[in-house]
Amino acid sequence: xxxxxxxxxxxxxxxxxxxxxxxxxxxxxxxxxxxxxxxxxxxxxxxxxxxxxxxxxxxxxxxxxxxxxxxxxxxxxxxxxxxxxxxxxxxxxxxxxxxxxxxxxxxxxxxxxxxxxxxxxxxxxxxxxxxxxxxxxxxxxxxxxxxxxxxxxxxxxxxxxxxxxxxxxxxxxxxxxxxxxxxxxxxxxxxxxxxxxxxxxxxxxxxxxxxxxxxxxxxxxxxxxxxxxxxxxxxxxxxxxxxxxxxxxxxxxxxxxxxxxxxxxxxxxxxxxxxxxxxxxxxxxxxxxxxxxxxxxxxxxxxxxxxxxxxxxxxxxxxxxxxxxxxxxxxxxxxxxxxxxxxxxxxxxx
Length: 350
Hints:
By secondary structure, this protein is of the alpha/beta class. It has helices spanning about 20-25, 30-40, 55-60, 75-85, 90-100, 115-120, 135-145, 160-170, 195-205, 220-230, 255-275, 285-290; strands at about 10-15, 45-50, 105-110, 125-130, 150, 175-180, 210-215, 235-240, 295, 310-315.
């Protein structure tokens, strides 16, 4: 069953990028978050997603970095998270209200039990980070809220994914979307492995499949477009208003222009995909008649003669007797003189 009522459903992960936008624009963090939500809405995004955590609940103080240090120089996970953990329940409630006001879905990935609880008050769908795929107690706690779950699968084995899905199923019967993801920032194009989307669909046929992307946006947004074409009905990607900003999630994020390119691609795919079942199209009706062949007299056939294969050939247009019906013509007797190059008609013989 589909979690959302449209596809592809595009999620712009604002994450904590609004902190840097606030500094650049010299506005408050709340104003920056709302600005990014509004810009996401304007360019055609379906949902915005944040990250709910406190540094002391997500990482120990000696957790090393695993991202591109040339883009984000902070060498400690704890120190990085500490820079971006100002928002809590009240702030995210304000953002959820703002999303409702302008007509875009609010989401936030919880990274601790407290976040799961307060988000439950104003959020309809949970996202589980790739980093928590093996955190079975946490997964079960989220599942106990009985709301649909997007499950990211970066850096995981198939068995680990199955265990996570099993943990959800043991607690709830909620809909699940299995999100292909590569836990590498940025993900090199050759590491995107979009064919894994098809593999996940084969292994979890009862659940929806999506894609959470960490590649740098390509000019034509072919990574996201291909993911959708391969069956990912939910697409998630980091979102920014300035890809040149230094920071953990700006350099591999999409901006409003990228979103519009992707939407144009999707519209074009919808146009060219058309109908699934093979059948003649209205636009082919003229060609179907004129470009196909008919049974034609190869030479003059006199009245009273039996028609043999040597009397016949096949030429355009296809408005006469089809060559597929040749057995209905052979050995019949001409009842009129049939001139060479004439399209045969059933009234010409008996």
